[in-house]
C-alpha cells in the first residue's frame, strides 16, 4: 500500500531518489535544497538505500562525479539550486553531450547579485539551452512523481539525456504537504534497472567517452542531442501514460484548467499554477471567461501543445518568474517562437512577477487581469509588464 | 620506424567513425585516438644515441603518449607521428642517450 504522509518537497525529492535506487549520489549543500542530500545521506547511513554518497567540495565536483559515475554505467542523482546550478553550468553541457541520464532536483531560486535565497526560476531557465530536459513541479507530490518520471524518460534509449526537476524554493521545498509515497515494487516495475547500452565501463569493451570532435563531426553530435530532445516529446507522453496506469496520477506536458471556452488563459509553471487555478475559479464566479495552463515540461518545449492551447484563447497571459534580457521572459520568447508562423494566433502579453520570492497573490493577479482585459478589448497595452514592482523606490 | 600495433583498428575507426555518429559521440573501438597524429605539435625532438643507451627502458616507461616502442634488441624506437617533444624521456635517461634538439625541417 502506498503510504500517505506529510512532507516537504525536499524530503519528497529525497524519497523519490530513494525509490529510484541510484547507485551514486554526489551533492553539496546549498539553500534551499540542503535537506535533499541530508535526507539521502541518512537513507544511505541507515542502510535503507544501497548507494555511494559522495561528499564533494562544490557543485562543480558534484556534477563531475555524477558524470563520471553515469559514464561508468550507473543511475546517478544530485540536487542543487541557484548559484550551485550555475557553478555546474559547463559540466551540464558535457552531461547532455555525452548523453548521460543524470537527474538533478533543483530548488528553484533566484541568482545573485544581490544575494537572494528565495524563489524564482532564473537558475533553471538560465540552463535551458544545455540540452537537459526540464520539468517543473506544482506541489510536493509532483516533485516526487516528476523525479521518477525524469529517470524513466532520461534513461529511455530514444532519449538518453539528463533531466532536471525544478520545484519552487521555500514555497515547496520547505512547506509541508500531504504526499503519497508509492510502493517500492511498483516503482521498480515502472523504472526497472538502469541498463546502459551506450556508455558503461567494462575492461573487455574499451571505449572513449567525451571524445574530441573535429569540425567534420561536431555538428552531427550536436544534432543528435537536438534530435534526442525532439524524441523526448513522445517518450514523455508515454511515460506520463504509464505513470497514470501504475500510480493513478495524471500528468501532461501542458495541463489545462477550464480552458474550453476561455478568452484569457493564464500560462505559468511551478507552484504559481496552483494560485492561478484558484484565481481562475474566482474569476469564473464573477462570470469572466478565464482559464489556466501549466507547463509541466519546459524542455523539450511542447510546441504542438502550445499551438493547440493558442487556438483556444484570444489572449495568452504569460506569468513568469524570470527575466531574459531580450523581450520579456523565457516563456514569452518560446511562445512567440512557437506561434510566429501560425495563421491565427492569440495576443501574447508577458508578465514578470514574483522575482526573488516576492509573493504573488490575487492582488498581483488582478493587475495581470486588467492588462489582459485591455489587450482583449483591443486597447493599447504593454507587451512586457513588471507586476508588483515598487516604482516609488526606483 | 616500427608500425603501430593498432593499425588495423585505426583503419576500422576511421571508416566507422566517419560513417556513423554514436550517442554521445562515443568511440567504441580501442585505439581510436591514435588516428589523431600529434607529432606536429613538437618544437623539440628527442635525438637518440644508441651507443650510450644501456636499455634501462626508463624512456619507454615514462613516455606519456606512449610514442616509444622497443625494437627486437630492446632499444627504444621513437614514433615521431605521436611524440609531442615533451622531453620527459631525455630527462629520465640516466646516460644522456637522449637529448632534446630544436626541430628543423
TrEMBL record, chain A:
GO terms for molecular function: pyruvate synthase activity. Pfam families: PFOR_II, POR_N. Keywords: Oxidoreductase, Pyruvate. This is Pyruvate synthase subunit PorA. It comes from the Archaea. CDD domains: TPP_PYR_PFOR_IOR-alpha_like. The lineage of its organism: Archaea, Methanobacteriati, Methanobacteriota, Thermococci, Thermococcales. It is an enzyme of class 1 (oxidoreductase). Its EC number is 1.2.7.1. Coiled coil: none annotated. Residues 16-239 form the Pyruvate flavodoxin/ferredoxin oxidoreductase pyrimidine binding domain. Residues 262-364 form the Pyruvate:ferredoxin oxidoreductase core domain. It catalyses: 2 oxidized [2Fe-2S]-[ferredoxin] + pyruvate + CoA = 2 reduced [2Fe-2S]-[ferredoxin] + acetyl-CoA + CO2 + H(+). It comes from Thermococcus gorgonarius. One of its GO terms (biological process) is response to oxidative stress. Heterotetramer of one alpha, one beta, one delta and one gamma chain.
Automatic annotation (TrEMBL), chain B:
Keywords: 4Fe-4S, Electron transport, Iron, Iron-sulfur, Metal-binding, Pyruvate, Repeat, Transport. This is Pyruvate synthase subunit PorD. Heterotetramer of one alpha, one beta, one delta and one gamma chain. Residues 44-73, 74-103 form the 4Fe-4S ferredoxin-type domain. It comes from Thermococcus gorgonarius. Its cofactor is [4Fe-4S] cluster. It comes from the Archaea. One of its GO terms (molecular function) is 4 iron, 4 sulfur cluster binding.
Amino acid at each position: 500500500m502506498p503510504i500517505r504522509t506529510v512532507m516537504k518537497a525536499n524530503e519528497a525529492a529525497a524519497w523519490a531518489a530513494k525509490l529510484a535506487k541510484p547507485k551514486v549520489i554526489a551533492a553539496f549543500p546549498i539553500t534551499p535544497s540542503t535537506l535533499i542530500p541530508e535526507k539521502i545521506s541518512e537513507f544511505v547511513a541507515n542502510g535503507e538505500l544501497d548507494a555511494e554518497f559522495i561528499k564533494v567540495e562544490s557543485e562543480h565536483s558534484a556534477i563531475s562525479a555524477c558524470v563520471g559515475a553515469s559514464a561508468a554505467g550507473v543511475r546517478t542523482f544530485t540536487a542543487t539550486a541557484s548559484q550551485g546550478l550555475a557553478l555546474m553550468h559547463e559540466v551540464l553541457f558535457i552531461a547532455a553531450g555525452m548523453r548521460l541520464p543524470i537527474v538533478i532536483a533543483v530548488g528553484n531560486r533566484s541568482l545573485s547579485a544581490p544575494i537572494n535565497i528565495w524563489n524564482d526560476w532564473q537558475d533553471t531557465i538560465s540552463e535551458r539551452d544545455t540540452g537537459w530536459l526540464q520539468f517543473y513541479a506544482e506541489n510536493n507530490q509532483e516533485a516526487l512523481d516528476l523525479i521518477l518520471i525524469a529517470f524513466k524518460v532520461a534513461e529511455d534509449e530514444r532519449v538518453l539525456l539528463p533531466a532536471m526537476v525544478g520545484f519552487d524554493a521555500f514555497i515547496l521545498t520547505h512547506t509541508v504537504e500531504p504526499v503519497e509515497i508509492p510502493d517500492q515494487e511498483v516503482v521498480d516495475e515502472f523504472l526497472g534497472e538502469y541498463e546502459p547500452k551506450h556508455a558503461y565501463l567494462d575492461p573487455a569493451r574499451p571505449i572513449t567517452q567525451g571524445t574530441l570532435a573535429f569540425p567534420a563531426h561536431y555538428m552531427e553530435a550536436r544534432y543528435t542531442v537536438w534530435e534526442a530532445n525532439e524524441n523526448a516529446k513522445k517518450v514523455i507522453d508515454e511515460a506520463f501514460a504509464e505513470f497514470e496506469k501504475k500510480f493513478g496520477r495524471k500528468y501532461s506536458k501542458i495541463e489545462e484548467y477550464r480552458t474550453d471556452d476561455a478568452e484569457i488563459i493564464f500560462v505559468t509553471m511551478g507552484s504559481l499554477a496552483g494560485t492561478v487555478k484558484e484565481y481562475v475559479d474566482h474569476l469564473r464566479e464573477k462570470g469572466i471567461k478565464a482559464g489556466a495552463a501549466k507547463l509541466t515540461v519546459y524542455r523539450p518545449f511542447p510546441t504542438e501543445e502550445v499551438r493547440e492551447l493558442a487556438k483556444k484563447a484570444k489572449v495568452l497571459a504569460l506569468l513568469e518568474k524570470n527575466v531574459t534580457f531580450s523581450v520579456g521572459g523565457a516563456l514569452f520568447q518560446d511562445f512567440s517562437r512557437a506561434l510566429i508562423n501560425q495563421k491565427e494566433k492569440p495576443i501574447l502579453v508577458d508578465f514578470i512577477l514574483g522575482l526573488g520570492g516576492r509573493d504573488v497573490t490575487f492582488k498581483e493577479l488582478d493587475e495581470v487581469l486588467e492588462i489582459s482585459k485591455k489587450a482583449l478589448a483591443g486597447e493599447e497595452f504593454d507587451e512586457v509588464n513588471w507586476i508588483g514592482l515598487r516604482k516609488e523606490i526606483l | 620506424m616500427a608500425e603501430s600495433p593498432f593499425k588495423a583498428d585505426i583503419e576500422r575507426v576511421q571508416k566507422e567513425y566517419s560513417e556513423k555518429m554514436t550517442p554521445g559521440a562515443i568511440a567504441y573501438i580501442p585505439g581510436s585516438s591514435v588516428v589523431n597524429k600529434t607529432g606536429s605539435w613538437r618544437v623539440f625532438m628527442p635525438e637518440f644515441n644508441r651507443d650510450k643507451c644501456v636499455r634501462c627502458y626508463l624512456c619507454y616507461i615514462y613516455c606519456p603518449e606512449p610514442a616509444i616502442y622497443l625494437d627486437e634488441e630492446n632499444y627504444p624506437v621513437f614514433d615521431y607521428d605521436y611524440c609531442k617533444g615533451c622531453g620527459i624521456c631525455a630527462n629520465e635517461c640516466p646516460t644522456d642517450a637522449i637529448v632534446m634538439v630544436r626541430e628543423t625541417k
